[in-house]
Each structure stands twice: as structure tokens, then as C-alpha cells.
Amino acid sequence: MFDSVRLPHKLDKAEFAEISERLREKLLDAQFEFGERKQKSLLLLINGSDGAGKGEVLNRLYEWLDDHSLETLSYGAPTEEERTRPLEWRYWRDMPGKGRIGLVIGGWHHRLLHHRAQGKISRAAFESGLDEINRSEEMLRNEGVVLVKVWLHVEDSVAQKRLAKLRENGGGLKRAVVIEWDDIKGARERQKLARSALDLVEKTSTGYAPWAVVAAEDARYRDAAVAELLLVALERANAESAARAPAPTPAPTQPADIPALPRASLVGALDLSHRADAERYGETLDALQGRLSELTTSRKFAHRGLVLVFEGNDAAGKGGAIRRVRAALDPRRFRVQGISAPTDEELARPYLWRFWRHLPRLGHTAIFDRSWYGRVLVERVEGFCSRDDWMRAYTEINDFERQMTRARILVIKFWLAISQEEQLARFASRASRPAKRYKITEEDWRNRGKWPQYEEAANEMIDRTNAQRAPWTLVESNDKKYSRLKVLRTIVERLEEEL
Amino acid sequence: MFDSVRLPHKLDKAEFAEISERLREKLLDAQFEFGERKQKSLLLLINGSDGAGKGEVLNRLYEWLDDHSLETLSYGAPTEEERTRPLEWRYWRDMPGKGRIGLVIGGWHHRLLHHRAQGKISRAAFESGLDEINRSEEMLRNEGVVLVKVWLHVEDSVAQKRLAKLRENGGGLKRAVVIEWDDIKGARERQKLARSALDLVEKTSTGYAPWAVVAAEDARYRDAAVAELLLVALERANAESAARAPAPTPAPTQPADIPALPRASLVGALDLSHRADAERYGETLDALQGRLSELTTSRKFAHRGLVLVFEGNDAAGKGGAIRRVRAALDPRRFRVQGISAPTDEELARPYLWRFWRHLPRLGHTAIFDRSWYGRVLVERVEGFCSRDDWMRAYTEINDFERQMTRARILVIKFWLAISQEEQLARFASRASRPAKRYKITEEDWRNRGKWPQYEEAANEMIDRTNAQRAPWTLVESNDKKYSRLKVLRTIVERLEEEL
């Protein structure tokens, strides 16, 4: 693969002067238009052998581009902050907004390859890592992130020479990305590394995000070639943004005239008559809260994280349940995250970004009052996104939760269900009590009118995301006390199992 | 996942009569429109536990649909014919054309799952098989094949009872699909099977081809639900075909006004001055042909296949080289496949179909005079397909060739290169000799005008598909004798290595 990179690729000074002048001008125009359109963001991933000049390319791009909408995302060994989060967290944290360009050094490919070369992961784990990368990149593409994947190639002999020179010069080296590869020294290890790199480039070259391998021995050629790749990508993205048809009206789940089968629904099948023993409620609540407090302050919990997801019908009592859970937690180590309409910042990034930013570090708890499931609930029912978007969201959500659980975060998901009659009673009661009136809006009444669609969406959501590692708990919530106790008991039991 | 399927799903006779009458009418309309539009084909994959009634569903669909554009694709243990080809061959062989519906029983998911349940493949191999399935299905979707993936679910206890009954009735059972699962009997094995099935459904539920799990205990509900899924898919496909914008003008690889770097090209870097020793040519040719004949009639070759791909500049001597190879082969066991414009049959199916149909069985040789690389050569340069199509083709081709090599087919690929001057001389000579005049057309002259674009396309093709298991051999062909000897020698050497 990519053998042509071994051919001589050179630009003499005059050629470079001419080409670079034209490239610069075009680049600035394209970057400006890209920033103005604010339709997509772009990640330029600069990978390749040590000594190939990744840092130099970076410098050149800063020289040629407008640095206001440019950011460098450089990753070495994980920092302490990063080690307490899922692997993928740091890439999400740094995701540039629409109209902006991120220059990535030491990104996800690099990390996987490095682990493989060091023998930290098996061949099978490496392969499955590559497949996971492809899924993530497909998701990013669908979310409007343009990926330009560049592999800078120099022959190993050349790289070694350059590294030796860098080493002589001493001091500055420690800070260079280069150091990361430096621990892979033996000839056999380096060969293995080269083979794995080839596998990586082959397997993760997809139609939507292909690799470009650039001959990096001649610095002038290298810099011009990377700039050209960036320019082509920007111009293509701009052309696509310009041609973009207005968002299609989302197709209804079911064409209107198709005879509908009666649907059996998990949510609809719940027996909502469950009631707590009112007399013993206070006592049981105390006991559960006490146990939860013990568990979440235990030494074992320090190496775990906890994510609680609350979804359910309007007025099902999410807030009340959350308050009972929260009361048992150390206030320094939890956060309740209410999810309502996304901010501008959030709209400018891939959908899952707004949730990644609120993931807890190890030893902490994040409580989501509504969550990433919004895409397959409200966004689906209200037609805020297309069918393609919410259909692919199931897979993306399963991947997302797998990334959390793999990082030792326990994910517990609740669906709080009430009957239509109970909801009506609660709405009426809220409307009549001044202190609670803010909790009931026009929108709530409108949503109520779409009860069957919401139920269908909830049921499909549970069917498609009830993963073994992150199962749903359906909570019969017509009786608030019953609901709260069930929520607490579920959390306590899961923690007891897991810790 | 899909727990709602465990809820009671039933239709009584009257409900079924009403729903089925309306479903039938709609189905026929939708099927008719689907057939008229001829834009897509549809595969309905019916999977699920034994005893769930796959065969009965099939019967029902034949009753309700027009059987003229319907075909059953049913797969059991591979036949002798199938065992001598790559695993995937039988699915390709049966691929329905546009406007047609295939009902698939025992398809690719079934096979993988069965192997896993029998312990024939490791967990890692199973996972990587699932990823491969996703890639294939994405390709099918991109090629206009609608996939409806149905999993019929009955509880294991119900299934066992039904199977026992079938067994009592004896005779007919052997022919039923049911028998395939029947060898997985132990409770632990069946549990493992169920868990693997869950993994399969989770991992291969993608946005573009999600699973639908259907409660199959009640036959009426089951049949109506499958018919409804089919109807929704047909209506959606018809709506998409109706809305389909005219094919976009393919974007040029490089926007016209971007300063182009000088490209180093593998093809361009060849030293075309190589010449064969004319005096010893006949002798060497004889020796190589003799050796090739020995090798391809050896006992070891009986368990291998050979695919030879010839690509190159017009008039580079592909035909002459092929004749020299062919002369050494047993005429009963090779086939030369000239690839020109696709037939109607071929246009109605996914791109790779026309090549799958010509794959050799084990012990045989297929010689492709031009090949699947057409998509990234002529179709790219002439704008016959979009950039997205040829960009994804690299990945698809690498997958395709991996499927061949895994099935013990040796894939050898030649690029025959001549200089522009040599081509001109050959064109002129052809034009002046009546017997050869048919070999030179207007189109050849037009292609010649696009030399740089073809060279760029060839170079990128070699860079992106020069896989270790199926490498390219570049053949300097200004001297025909040199070219022919190099081709023969490469084949002989590769066979000697591999047998």
C-alpha cells in the first residue's frame, strides 16, 4: 500500500516559492469561507513516523492560515485528568465547533498503534479497535465533521538519523511528540510497528475518511502537500455547504395509510398499580439512602464512576426521584445535569458532545435529568432530526455507553412511567399551585397530545438500547413513593453487584 | 435488547382477516410500483429460532405477493458447487436484479451464528465476522439494495415443543431449514447460542439496516408483522426513488484552480527501456509456459484457485500477454473474461456482481482482461460514478480480494505500462493494418487525451489496493516480449511460493 511515497518527492526553492504563494492565498480564502458558512468543522489528523516533521508541518500551517479559527489538539500520554475518564473523553473535550479547524497530533490512531507496537493489546483487540475507529469516524462525518487524515512517511533510516540529531540537541526533546515512539527501539519491534501501521492505514481508509500518505523527506514538498490536502478538503466542504438542500422533512416512522398492527409495548404493559407501603416509606428510604451513601463513599467506588440516566413521561417524578438520590451523595462528588434545548456551543458540535462534557471522573456521579436519549425520543417525535439520524443514533448510543462501561463507569438508566390519567391529574395540580406553576407549560400539553408516538419511541428505544452492560429499569411511577424506592433500590443493588 | 417481543402479541381471526386484507392490497400496489421503478432491489432476510415458522412466513408472502418478481434464496450447508468457491459466492450468485424481491432464509447472519454456536470460530473471529457483515451491508445499501432484516422470536420452550412435533411427523423434516440448528441440543449450548444471537442482533443493527425482532408465537401476528415491515420498506424505497434527484455531476478530484504539486507516480517512474533478450525469448517462453502448465495441473493446485487481473494502458499488450498465459493452461480449467460495458443484467445489480459471477472454482483459473478496477479507473476518469462511489470502492475491492484469498484463491494483478510515444506508434500501426483495425476506435484516441488523469487514477489505485495478500505487479511493456516474460515469470514464482 502507498508504495508511491517511496519515490523521490521534492520541490526546489523556486518551485516551492511559487506554489506556496498560491496555496496560501487560496487557503486563506477557503478558510474564511469555511468559517463564515459555519456548516462543518474540520479535523486535520497529522500522523506518521517520528522524525517525519509533524511539528514542522504544524508550524507551517500556523504561518499560512489565519490562526483565529485554528486550534492544535495534541495528545501524549494521558494526563491525570484524562486517566480518570474514558479514553475517548479528551478527543470529545477538544472538539472544535463549526467553522473551525483542529490540527490533531497524536490522535486516536496513534494511541491504538502505539499500544499495539508495545504489545499492550492483542491482534484481535487491535483489529476491533480499528473497526471502532471506523464507526466513530462515520458518526463524525454524519455529524458534519470533515476528517483529513494525513500520514507523513519517511524511511526508517532517515527517521532514525533525525531522531539521533534531536537527541543530541537534548533539552527540547522531552516536550516533542516524538518522544512517545522513542521507546520502541528494537529492529523487530520497529518492523512490527511498521506492519501494524500499514494495517491501520489499510483498514481505516474508508470512502468517507481515506488516508493520504505524504512523502515527508523533503520538507518543502511535505508542507505543500499537506496544505494542498487541506485546501482540497476545505473547498469541497464549502461546495457541499453551498449546495446543501434545505433539511428534508423527516419521513414519518410509518407511512400514514399503512394498516397498523396493535403494538405490544413494554412501557404500556407496565402494571402501574404498584404502591409503596406508606407507613414504612420513611424508614425504607432512610435505609436505602444510608446504604447508597456508604457505597458511594467506599474505597472501591473511588475507582469507578456512576452515570444515572432519568427519562420518562412528563410529570412522572424524575425531579423528585433525583432529589432522593442526590441527598445520599457527597455533594463534592456528584452533579445533576438537566438537559434541555442545546446551547449554541452544543449545536456547533456533534450531538454526543454535550453529554461527553458532563461525564463524571472516576469516583464521581453524574445524574442526567433527560439525556442523549433525547435524539430518539423528542427529536424523533417532533421531527427535529431525520429518520436516518435517529436510526443511527441507537448504534451510536450503544457505542457511547460501551465506552463508558469499559472505562469502569456504571451506567444505570431509568424510564419513569405514569398513566395518562395520572399525568392529567399532576398537570392540573401543578397548574393550580403557584409554586409549581413554572413546571407546566404549553409544550407539556402539546406533548401529551402525542402520547402514542412518545410511547412507541420509548418502546423502540428500550428495545434497541437495553444492552447487557447498561440495561434499562422501567419504574412504575403512578405512586411517587414506590417510584423513588425502586430507583434507589436499583442503584444500591447494581452498586453492590459491581463493587 | 428487544425485550418487548416477550409480551403477548396476538391477533384473533377477525382482526387478522381485516388487517390482512388491507395489507395485501397495499403490498401488491407497493410491489408493483417497486417493480416498475426498477431503482432498487430488496432482500427480506428471515432469521430466527428454529420452530419460529420461517417457512410458514415464506408461504404467506407467496400467497400475498405477486410471485413473478419474488424469489426465495434459501441456504443450508454448502453444496459441492458452493464449497469450491468463497463463502460469499452463493449470496452474490443469487442477487436479485432491480425491481425484484429476494426472500432469504439461512443467510450470512445465520451461517456465522451457527459456526459460533458450534464452537467452530472464536469470539474474536465472530466479532470480526460481524464487522465484515456490516461493511458488506453498507456496500449493498450504497448499491441500491434495500435490506429488511427480520428476527422471528419464540421462547426456547415453545420452539422445543414445536420441533418435537415436527420430529414425530418425521419424513419431511430433513428438507426443512430447521434441521440445521437441531444439532445444538444441550441447554448450555442453546444458551450460548441465544447470547450470541443477541450479540449479533445488537452489533449488526445499523442505521441503514436495523434488525426488527418479531414476536412469532402467534402465527397470525407474526405473518402480519413481517408483511407490514416489508410494506413499510417498499413504500419508503418507492418514495426515495420518486424523490431521487438526477445524479450529481461528479466533482473533479481536484478543484480546477488549486495549484497542483508535481506528482511522483509509480507508473510514471517505471523504467520502460527494459527489453527481453530477443534470441533467447522463444526458449524462455517455452520454459515458463511448461512450468506454469506443470504447476496448474499439480495436485496441490486442485485445492487452490487462480485469478489473474490485467489492467494497463490501451494497447499495452494485455491481449498478447493473456494469450501466452492461456496457452499454458488446461483449456477445461480456465476462462478469459473480457470486461467491457456492463450488460442490463449487470447494471441491475451491485457493482461487484459481474465479477463474482465469473470467479473460478477451486482448481480453476479466471483471467480478467480489465476488471473490477474499472470503477476507480475509467468510471472515475470519465465521471460515470460519483467521487463517493469510487472512494468507497477501494475499501470494497480490498474486502472483495480478501474474501477470495481467504478462500484459497491466489490473486495476481498486473498493470501493463507503456509510454505515450509507444502507444501512439501502436495506434498508428493498428490503424494501418486491416486485420487489426477493429482494435482501435475513436474512444481510444479520446482516452489518450486524458493520459494524466488516467495515470493519476492508476497510481492512486495501486497505492490503495496494493495489499500484501494481493499485490500489484507493474510490468514495463514497451517491449512486448519483456512484458510477456515478466507476466509469466511472476505467475510462476507466485505459484511456486504458494503451492
List the main descriptive attributes of the protein structure presented here.
homodimer, 499 residues, alpha/beta, 5-stranded parallel beta sheet, elongated
Compact summary:
Chain A is an alpha/beta fold and about 500 residues long. The first copy, chain A, is built from 19 helices and ten strands. Chain A starts with 12 loop residues before the first helix and ends with a helix.
| Structural class computed from helices and strand pairing of chain A | alpha/beta
Q: How many DSSP E strands of chain A?
A: 10
Rounded mean pLDDT score of chain A: 88
Spatial extent as radius of gyration of chain A = 27 Å
Largest interface: pair, residues per side: A-B, 64 and 64 residues
The biggest beta sheet of chain A is recorded as: 5 strands, parallel
SSE pattern of chain A: HEHEHHEHHEHHEHHEHEHHEHHEHHHEH
Q: Beta-strand percentage of chain A?
A: 5-15%
Number of helices of chain A: 19
Oligomer kind: homodimer
Order of strands, widest sheet of chain A: 2-3-1-4-5
| Beginning-to-end CA distance, first to last residue of chain A | 47 Å
Estimate the global geometry of chain A from the Cα principal axes.
elongated
| Helical content class of chain A | 40-55%
User: Can you tell me the residue ranges of chain A where pLDDT is under 50 for at least 5 consecutive residues?
Assistant: 171-179
